[in-house]
Amino acid sequence: MGGMLLAINYSLEAAELLRQKRISVDRFKCPDWPWMIEEASQICPTAVHLNLTAGGGGMEAVDWELAERLLAQTDTPYVNLHLEPRRKDFPAYDNASHDPAQDEAVIARMIADVGAAAQRFGAERVIVENVPYRGTEHKVVRACVEPAIFSQVLEETGAGLLLDISHARIAAHALGIDEREYMERLPVERIKELHFTGIHRIEGRLQDHLEALPEDWPVLEWALGQMRAGLWGEAWLLALEYGGVGEKFAGRSEARWIEEQVGRLRGMV
Fold this sequence. Notes:
There is one protein chain. The protein has 269 residues and is an alpha/beta fold. The chain has one domain: TIM Barrel, CATH 3.20.20.150. 39% of the residues lie in helices and 19% in strands. Strands 3-2-1-11-8-7-6-5-4 form a nine-stranded parallel beta sheet. Strands 9-10 form a two-stranded antiparallel sheet. Helix 4 runs parallel beside helix 5. The model has no long low-confidence stretch (mean pLDDT 95).
């Protein structure tokens, strides 16, 4: 696990801390926005996180050439997809139902979409991220967060796993499964990348992309321990998904939290 890199979301606050040598990261994680990659690259190497969704169709409309260009520009080894079929794509789907028959069309679409990326780039370069799920009223189709189905999609396409620890914990809570048990039931032997943030309960809802709380760290320490023990696959990158640019991240890019959390992560990686 000695080769795992540490990244953080690009933000003006993180950039300033890096300039002042108050934090140490290997990459800035950037969305697929060419201007941001250009800006961030002046300060630190970058890794691009593509805004690609699998499971709802429409893969023929993806600008694969842009994706390819940004991957090459940033020397990012993997093409990431969010496994996120939505209920608007499957209007008859009932999140409260456990009927396997209704999952068939969703599974077929997820496999087709991930397969399209695997066909273009090679399955060994494709990684699939687990998404959060918040219960029967959620916009996401439940099938995509069921561990057995998620595993089936990766098995049949040959893709790797981008394990988002916070997303897994949110989904586990909604499904009534222990957090660590839920992660163990995912295809963890296929892990290629890892994401981590804090989770806060805000107005009764679990929200991620916030600073880590004391109860968040043990889950990450456990996950890294599973990797070190050879029980899980090895991640090329651990990304702290805290901070960002724009109004959405107002109050969620505080320098004090970035400095404290990056320092702690650097000691763990």
